[in-house]
Amino acid sequence: MRWEAQELKVTDPAALLPLAGLVRSIQTPDFAGVTFHEVVCKSALNRVPAQSAMPFHWTINPTRGCLHRCTYCFARRTHEYLDLDAGQDFDTQIIVKTNVVEVLRRELARPSWQREHVALGTNSDPYMRAEGRYKLMPGIITALADSGTPFSILTKGPLLRRDLPLLVEAATRVPVSVAVSLALIDPDLQQRVEPGTATPKARLELIRAIADAGLECSVLAMPILPWLTDSEDQLDALFGALAGAGASDVTVGALHLRPGAREWFMAWLGREYPALVPRYRRLYGSGSYAPKDYRQWLGERAGRARRKHGFDRRAPRRWARDAASDPAPASAPAAPAAPEPAQLALF
């Protein structure tokens, strides 16, 4: 069924007023229960606030909201800026910037553009299933490479394999970093926590495909879930699977629960693991992040898994605002976690 035939006839214009540049809203049987709001955007490059701990200045998010439905996603609260909720709306009301490639090319052509590193996958996954319909990423990759702009991509989506030839070619002209988000390899638990994402097996195959294409593939093993995925055996299995798939580096981080994500995740935990709710309330009672002693304990445990599977002998690739602010790898063996660590993406 053609998407053009699925345009919604909105009877209450006020309901969509927060969506600046709205062209149309679309539903399709291929994405049951999801509405795509196609908008024309005025900007493609987003400047990261100066006070942010993120190690880059610029991001691109072709979409807002995410089909992955990860219960812990820190970006959920950003939907509230649109007068949408951080729970069901974040999973089902997806904003698509249909003209993002055209706008990006204009911005990259400005004399003021300094060709700083640009990160994709920081607020929504650029390779969620809808990218198969909208095909925005090939134009974005080409625009960045044509302008001489280095970039990175973080994803849970095996659809990235479609663009591997483009990424390999881009890497001959600019620095390109590719990372896959994978922290859960128990397929049953993974599908309960991240019901809209590809299976662990599919993501391990994606890591292998990236490595076989000649690109380094780092992995963000975030979030590690207290009492659910942080045992010695679980971390050993995770690092072993990632090493076997050819990952170049692994960064580990404990779950953090910002407002918006906190309510959604705790509701899920109450349904799935009610006995753990009091423990989580104690662990996260004083803020969004797990206490420093837990994070340090997790870092030491992950450090042992790193050494066992040879990741300590692999030089990690990092990008940074400048040399002075380059953060130490969060997963370095025995390194204490920072007081308020930055999760590099919504995953």
Task: List the topology elements.
Elements lengths: L21 E5 L8 E5 L5 E3 L10 E3 L2 E2 L23 H5 E5 L2 H9 L9 E3 L10 H4 L2 H10 L4 E5 L8 H7 L5 E6 L5 H7 L6 H13 L4 E8 L7 H14 L3 E6 L6 H12 L4 H7 L8 H17 L39
Parallel strand pairs: 2-6, 4-7, 7-8, 8-9, 9-10, 10-11
Antiparallel strand pairs: 1-2, 3-4, 5-6
Tell me what you see in this structure.
By secondary structure, this protein is of the alpha/beta class. The chain has one domain: TIM Barrel. It is built from eleven helices and eleven strands. Strand 10 (217-224), helix 8 and strand 11 (249-254) form a beta-alpha-beta unit. Helix 2 runs parallel beside helix 4 and helix 8 (232-245) crosses helix 11 (292-308). The longest helix has 17 residues, at 292-308. It is globular. The model is unreliable at 8-17 and 318-347 (pLDDT under 50). Pfam families: Radical_SAM. One of its GO terms (molecular function) is catalytic activity. Residues 308-318 have a biased composition (Basic residues).
Average of pLDDT:
86
Output the number of helix runs: 11
What's the CATH architecture name? Alpha-Beta Barrel
Distance between the termini: 32 Å
Please outline the major beta sheet: 7 strands, mixed
CATH fold name? TIM Barrel
Judged by helices, strands and strand pairing, the structural class is alpha/beta
Domain Radical SAM core: 52-301
GO molecular function, one term: metal ion binding
Biased composition (Basic residues): 308-318
Region (Disordered): 308-347
